[in-house]
Design a protein that fits this description.
The complex is a heterodimer. Chain A has no helices and twelve strands. By secondary structure, chain A is mostly beta strands. Chain A starts with a strand and ends with a strand. By secondary structure, chain B is mainly β. Chain B is about 0% helix and about 55% strand. The radius of gyration of chain B is 14 Å and the shape is globular. The chains are: A mainly beta, B mainly beta. The interface of A and B includes residues 43, 45, 49, 102 and 103 of A.
């Protein structure tokens, strides 16, 4: 079945450091890929998305590029802030297995940014 | 836009009682809503898919009679935890997929979650 693999956290960075959170996926067909962010005690918010190969999703300084050749969708930010501390989830939907209804989530990566 | 609310945000109940959690899409219509359960420091586990006007589809291992789902309108789905026990304590999150989501969209909009504690 489909799966999403994320790097284990926590990722601990100092403010203004460069961030990369790795995400790879296994799926049939051409899924859409997402990054969601969860702040403490809250639900998930869509951060960015990409719907086809080579698409780049971006929002709030975060970017991720849909790489079909490496089945990856790594999240990057050039300069993190303390307010970026949260749990980040990579997800996919729309594969031949999963269909267009469900999201398949990775296990989440906790980011801790210190001043 | 695309706001989903949940009520209550926190609830504490005694073992053996039932608890109802509401999920509402505030500014869009959703034919499909999803219910997730999240354990501490873990990912989301899809419990069921709720379609307006029809029976929910439950994931394998989720007890239909314990977690009752009703999707009565295009903006409201409810999850009732029946005869709750301490092991049902968890963070429950709903999400909604807009009626007009296109093929390229597919995103779901999530509620803020409900923390259930069963004593």
């Amino acid at each position: 079945g489909d799966s999403v693999t994320q790097m284990e956290g926590p990722v601990t960075l100092s403010e203004e450091a460069f961030l990369t959170i790795n995400c790879t996926y296994t799926a049939t067909g051409y899924p859409s890929l997402f990054w969601y962010v969860q702040y403490p005690g809250e639900g998930l918010q869509l951060l960015l998305k990409a719907t086809k190969a080579d698409d780049k999703g971006s929002n709030k300084g975060f970017e991720a590029t849909y790489r079909k050749e490496t089945t990856s969708f790594h999240l990057e930010k050039g300069s993190v802030q303390v307010s970026d501390s949260a749990v980040y989830f990579c997800a996919l939907s729309g594969s031949l297995n999963t269909g267009f209804q469900k999201l398949v989530f990775g296990t989440g990566t906790r980011l801790l940014v210190s001043p | 836009g695309a706001v989903v609310s949940q009520h209550p945000s926190r609830v504490i109940c005694k073992s053996g009682t039932s608890v109802k959690i509401e999920c509402r899409s505030l500014d869009f219509q959703a034919t499909t809503m999803f219910w997730y359960r999240q354990f501490p420091k873990q990912s989301l586990m899809l419990m069921a898919t709720s379609n307006e006007g029809s029976k929910a589809t439950y994931e394998q291992g989720v007890e239909k009679d314990k977690f009752l789902i009703n999707h009565a309108s295009l903006t409201l789905s409810t999850l009732t935890v029946t005869s709750a026990h301490p092991e049902d304590s968890s963070f429950y999150i709903c999400s909604a997929r807009p009626v007009m989501a296109d093929r390229g969209g597919l995103e779901q909009y999530f509620g803020p979650g409900t923390r259930l504690t069963v004593t």
